[in-house]
Amino acid sequence: MSKNFDLVVIGAGPGGYVAAIRAAQLGMNVACIDEWTTPDGKPAPGGTCTNVGCIPSKALLQSSEHFEHAKEHFAEHGITTGKLSMNVAQMLARKATVVKQNNEGILYLFKKNKITFFHGRGSFAKAVEGGFEVQVKGPSEETLVGKQVIIATGSKPRALPGVAFDEQQILSNDGALDIAAVPKKLGVIGSGVIGLELGSVWRRLGADVTILEGMSEFLPAADVQIAKEAKKAFDKQGLKIELGAKVSEVKTARTGVTVSYTNAAGEAQTLKVDKLIVSIGRIANTEGLNPEAVGVQLDERGAVVVDEHCKTSVPGIWAVGDVVRGPMLAHKAEEEGVAVAERIAGQHGHVNFNTIPYVIYTSPEISWVGKTEQQLKSEGVKYKAGTFPFLANGRARALGDTTGLVKVIAHADTDEVLGVHIVGPQASELIAEAVMAMEFKASSEDIARICHAHPTLSEATKEAALAVDKRALNF
C-alpha cells in the first residue's frame, strides 16, 4: 500500500534536505529518500557534499594545514616541537567523525521538522491520479505517492574514457579522501577544485604531487590576475602543475600507475606515480531514477532539463542542484531547494546566479563572485578595478600569511560592484561581504565608506574598494 505525501524529495544532499526542511516549514507533509549508507549500514544523508566532498575534504585540509604549520611555521612563533609525524589513520578517523556528526545532524533536522525519511534508492514508477508514484528500494522498501516531487540526486565523478575508478590506484574524490598512507608520488589529472584541494592535502603530508591539466590556462573561470597569483603560490609550495597536458593512456600495475601524455609543446611524456586522482569534472547522477516512466526529459549529458524556475518537462516535478544546469556547488543547490519549496507553496522563490560565490579551499584560499576582468572585456563593459595586497594588511602580517590580494571591479560609470576576487587567507569567509554588497547593488564607494574593524583581513576589501578610486590608504 502506498504512502501519500504533499512532496517527495529524491536525494538528501544539500539541495534535497534543505528543500525538504523548507517545505515542511511551509506546512507540507514531506518525505525524503536517500541511499547513502555508513560502513555499518546506517543512513548517511548529506549527499556527496557531506560524505565524500565538501565536509571530509575540509577536515583533511585542516589536519594537513596544522601539520604543515607545525613543520614549517611554529618555530617563528617561538614554539619548539620534537620530531613530527602524521598518524594518517587518526586523521582519517577524525574526518569520519566530522562526517558522522553532519549525517546525524541532518537526521535530527528531519525529525525536528517532522519529515519522513526513507533509506534507499528512489525511482519513478508511474504517474497516478493526484501525483507520482515513487519506489524506494534498499534498506527501506516502500511505495510513495507525492503530489509534487523534487529530484535532487546530485552528481558523480566523471572517469577517464576506458579507465574505471578502482579507488585503490585510480581514485575519484571518494578514494582520494581515504588514502591509508601518504604516497611517495601522487598524480592528479585536472586542476579544478577537487584536484587542487586534495593535491594540497597530500603534498603537505609529504607526497610528491604532479597535477596534469589539459587546459593551457590555469583556473580559466577565475580572474586572470587572481589565477596567476594563486599559481605562483602553488609553484612556491612545490605543487607541480603542468598545463596543456593531453593524457593519451593510463596503465596500472602492481608497482603503480603510468600516465602517458603530451606536454604543451607536443612532446611525449611519461609520469609514474603510486596513485592517480582523476578529477576531470562531474556528471549528473540520474542512474536508476527511471525518469522515462513519468516523461521527465534529460539532456544529452544526462542532466534533468529544467527552466529558470527549476520546473522539469512534467508539471509537478522539479529538479535542483548538480543534477540540473548551472554550477555544481552545494550552496547553489541549497538556494534552488529553498526557492522550489517556496514556489510549490505559492511564494516567489528566487535564486540570483550572478551572486553565487565560488571558493577553492587551498592555501591560499581562492574565492570570487560576479564578473572577471576578462569577461567584462569580452562583453565590452566599461569598468574600473582596485586591488589591495595582504602584504600591506596588519592582520595578515600578524597571522604570518600575507600571500595574495583582494580585487574589486566596478562599473566605470555607475560604480556598481560587478565582481570581487580574492586570493589569500580566509578568502572563503571574506567573500560573503562581497556577495551581500552585490545583492544590494552596492557601489565600490559604499564598501569604501563602511567602517571595517581594525585589525582584520576584511580591511583589505575596504582598501581594494578605495583603490577603485585610486585612494587606498595603506598601500
UniProtKB/TrEMBL annotation:
Concerning Gene3D superfamilies, the annotation shows: 3.30.390.30, FAD/NAD(P)-binding domain
Query: Would the keyword Nucleotide-binding be found if you checked this record's keyword annotation?
Result: yes
Cofactor annotation remark: Binds 1 FAD per subunit.
Question: What cofactor(s) does the depicted protein rely on?
Answer: FAD
Task: Decide whether keyword Zinc is in the record.
Answer: no
Database matches in SUPFAM superfamilies? FAD/NAD(P)-binding domain (SSF51905), FAD/NAD-linked reductases, dimerisation (C-terminal) domain (SSF55424)
Protein localization: Cytoplasm
One GO molecular function term? flavin adenine dinucleotide binding
**EC category:** oxidoreductase
Main localization, broad class? cytoplasm
Miscellaneous note of the record: The active site is a redox-active disulfide bond.
User: Family, per the entry?
Assistant: Belongs to the class-I pyridine nucleotide-disulfide oxidoreductase family.
Name-wise, this protein is Dihydrolipoyl dehydrogenase
Phylogenetic lineage:
Bacteria, Pseudomonadati, Pseudomonadota, Betaproteobacteria, Burkholderiales
